[in-house]
Design a protein that fits this description.
Structural class of chain A: alpha/beta
Radius of gyration of chain A: 16 Å
Number of helices of chain B: 10
Oligomer: heterodimer
Protein name (chain A): Centromere protein M
Number of helices of chain A: 5
Number of strands of chain A: 5
InterPro entries (chain A): Centromere_Cenp-M, P-loop_NTPase
Strand order of the largest sheet of chain A: 2-1-3-4-5
Structural class of chain B: alpha+beta
Helix content of chain A: 25-40%
Number of domains of chain A: 1
Radius of gyration of chain B: 25 Å
Largest interface: A-B, 21 and 12 residues
Shape of chain B: globular
Strand content of chain A: 15-25%
Strand order of the largest sheet of chain B: 2-3-4-5-1-6
Helix content of chain B: 25-40%
CATH topology of chain A: Rossmann fold
Main location (chain A): nucleus
Shape of chain A: globular
Mean pLDDT of chain B: 73
CATH architecture of chain A: 3-Layer(aba) Sandwich
Pfam families (chain A): CENP-M
Distance between the termini of chain A: 48 Å
Subcellular location (chain A): Chromosome, Centromere; Nucleus
Largest sheet of chain A: 5 strands, parallel
CATH class of chain A: Alpha Beta
Chain lengths: 185, 322
Amino acid sequence: MSLLKPFSKLPGLNTANILLVENEEQFQQKLADTVVLQEKTVNVNVRLARSLPLPMENEESRPRIDLVVFIIHLTSELSFQSAETSLKYLDPGYFQGKVCFLVTSARNVSVPPERLVSVRKLAASLHCPLLCAEDQTTEGVTTAAHRLLAILKVAAGLVPMATGLYLSTLTRCTVPSDIDQQNFE
Amino acid sequence: MDDSTKHILQRLMRRIPSQMLQTMLGKWAHLSREDLHSLDFTQPKWVLTEHLLALCEENGLRVKHITELEMIYIIENPNQGMWHGFQLLDAEEDAPSIELTQFKEQFKANLTELISHVSIKIKKHTDEAIWIRVAWGDNFTKPYHLKPTYVVHHLQTPYVFVTGLTSKYKPLLNQTEFCHTGLSSGHKIWLYEGRSPQWTEPHRHQRPSDEAVPTDPNIEKEQAENTENRLQMACEAFGDGTLPQLQKAVYKLETKFRDNSNKTLTGREEPFRGVVEFASTNLLESLRHCVSSGMASTPVTPLLSSITQKGRNYFVITDKGV
């Protein structure tokens, strides 16, 4: 199986590489443009993919991926399933602070609440942070890019005294035990 | 002018938007130049209507003149109602082409035979199409002009477009039409339902030219080849550029029911009748997007691609195929 490995290549100087995985290929482009524009001090490379595994042809030219972000649109069940199947193609080394889940349309009334619950459970079981983003407005995209950049810089080792593993213990998603009951009392 | 005529004119004036009014009245040519100049088009429409009514009374215009104006308006703006397209079958190869005046007489004669009170207007628009306006009446009542039927027949093609036809008068229209060119009007297949009485020839589309989309060198796509393939297939099936605005595609199913979980319906001899309808504000555009974004599996299934290939949006699906 062609797993994506976190440490098999050498890092670049003052460089951070992020991989955005999204089944619909809509939000990732906007996010990529904003991320690249926002960051001035560090050289950020963004790779876009629809799902894993990544094609073998790019194996040579691909740099070391510091952070893998799975973008899940809660409005589509297919989005979640595609992300789940892609997870199998990641080396376990990634799950120590180099994977992040980004969820859109969490406030949408027409979305079944069970879907967000299952995403939360998935993120919690993998010890990864779960971010919610608003993809329809520019402020939402900018905010999401800002947060991703913060996590990326830590994961790429560019922030002194902080590592991805350390950050992920603080930011990882947790699921309270009564989440299945959905009480509002 | 009697009340009903005035009423028809008022309704028509309300329908025509103010910007087009001047051109329409100019084309109408039933008002003299001085009369046309005397109309002040900057006034509010109801004032204009009163003025126009007065002018029509002066000139002694009658219902048939007013329906001419309506016809001019509809020809210029056919996108108002829903058109149904039909293809006439059994066209004889060497059917003698018939002169327009003869056709007009024959058509009018045939239709008035069936129902005595009809008002028919036939007009040849450019060289390609004949527009027919029919207002239906009863054997006892005068024709009702507020709900006319328009028929467009593109010459040299077996295609006919109809709008505003109720099921009450459908068989009458069927019986009269087009018996002259050897096209049997009894056998029509319903092809198309949309906003314009136009025909776009279905044709196979080429691969779109590679546009240079300016991308940041820092952003790179991993699976660019897949995306390209999908885009190409979408364009092959549905074409590049703007597509005709189709609102629906209807598939009438006459296939056997096949689902292992439902034992009562599977395995019956007679086909399971059903109708699948795809409706959208712009159906072809959304189907093309479905294919290019990967929502629909590629290669494009012939069910969808046959909409553009065969140029129809009404299909009957049997077990043998579309």
